[in-house]
Amino acid sequence: MTTWIILALYATGWVITARKAAHLLLNDTPHDQPDLGDQIAARMLGFLVGGMWPVILLGALVNGRLPKTDKQLRAEHAAQAQRIAELEHELGIEKGPHHA
Question: What DSSP string describes 28-60?
């Protein structure tokens, strides 16, 4: 059941995105009324854009490669700085201006 819900949401997002992308492309034509070639090209490109972004987003979620928040980056930096200080202490390396 969950698979069908996910598939339905994906298909709905695909159609909405494809229609919006095609609409934006068609409104960007230099002449008043786009011809059949412009309409077909815009719909094909909209179809590709609409289908690809959910796949890319899902891949990023699965691989855990979503951009980190500022809070996460600060926490990682603080942990790294603390670990460096621990290692320097264990090795007897002192930080300061007199040990340049």
Answer: T-SSSS--HHHHHHHHHHHHHHHHHHHHHHHHH
Would you kindly state where each structural domain of the chain is located, as residue ranges?
2-66, 69-100
Tokens 């709905």 appear where? 12
In 3D space, the residue among 70, 20, 66, 65 whose CA is nearest the CA of residue 45 turns out to be: 20
The one-digit pLDDT tens for each residue of the chain (100 residues) are 788 888 888 888 888 888 888 877 777 666 667 778 877 888 888 888 888 877 777 787 787 777 788 999 999 999 999 999 999 999 988 765 555 4
Stretch (H or E) spanning 23: helix 2-26
